[in-house]
Amino acid sequence: MWLDSHSQIFKPVRSALGYVLYPLHQISSAPSVLIDWFGDSAKSRQQLIAENAELSARNLILGQKIQRLISLETENSELRELLGASDRIGERVIVVELVAVDPDPFSQQIVINKGLEDGVFMGQPVLDSHGLMGQVIDVLPHSSRVLLIADSNHAIPVQINRNGVRAIAVGSGKLNELNLVYVPDTADIKEGDLLVSSGLGGRYPRGYPVASVATVEHFPGKAFAVVKAIPSAHLDRSRHMLLVFSDKVSNVPPQSLWQVK
Fold first, then answer.
1. Which of 57, 73, 90 is the last residue of a domain?
2. 256 and 131 together in one domain
3. End-to-end distance of the chain based on CA atoms, in angstroms?
4. Residues in contact with 103: Cβ distance below 8 Å, sequence separation at least 6, in sequence order
5. Residues 117, 48: one domain?
6. Same domain for 186 and 254?
7. Domain finish residue from 74, 90, 106
């Protein structure tokens, strides 16, 4: 060792041995390198799995929040439309919310979240931002039942906004259809005509949109035309509605409600 450290004689030999032994050194260290590499790979894979799970959970939460925001945006839009409708009405109104729908397929009735404690009364008109929805037929302290205009037991006197021709709109049992009964075959009524409440009978105030005429059919030899109309109110969609308080509409006992059987 002393000779090697104080002499340059063995330097070429040492260099040659270094070239020869380098592959053996690499081979001998390979297991530890592979172990470290596999350890790092496994660790990285576990981290990726954990991060993916966390990101998936965040995506679900964000998706739920987005859906809720969309729902709130729709609700706010509906409430803004109701506020606009209340300004146009010019009468005292309160906003109510739908809480239940009658499951009977042959009955078009809903339940709202206002009742006697809020001044709701029998026969009170209910409307959304687009038109008349129906009338209150049962009142409890904190809720009320509403008969929709599409119910087959409901009828409302209407008139054509264009010319004042009067008719009666009867519910068909379908939310998207009303029938006009006893319309003379010669009556001036056309598809697209707007039907508004006439105010006759004292049930509904005059001038509220009820429906638009969809079809008018004439049959030879028949005294009356077959007229179908589409309700103006969104009977199958509106969640918020207005209860109208008017001097022209008063509390009416159940037995005097005008219904067509």
1. 90
2. yes
3. 121
4. none
5. no
6. yes
7. 90
Nearest Cα residue to 184 out of 209, 164, 166: 166
State phi, psi for 191 to the nearest 5 degrees.
-60, 135
> pTM of the predicted model, to two decimals?
0.66
Q: How do beta strands 194-197 and 92-101 pair?
A: unpaired
Number of neighbouring beta carbons within 10 Å of residue 56: 10
DSSP string, 243-260: EEE-TT-----GGG----
**Mean of the per-residue pLDDT values of the chain:** 78
Residues of the domain holding 8 = 1-90
**pLDDT tens across 162-178, in order?**
888 999 999 999 999 99
CATH assignment at residue 108: 2.40.10.340
46 shares its domain with 132: no
Paired strand residues for 160: 195
- Residues contacting residue 150 through CB under 8 Å, at least 6 positions apart: 108, 171, 172, 173, 174, 175, 176, 177, 178, 231, 235
pLDDT digits (tens, 9 = 90+) for 105-148: 889 999 999 999 999 999 999 988 888 999 999 999 999 999 99
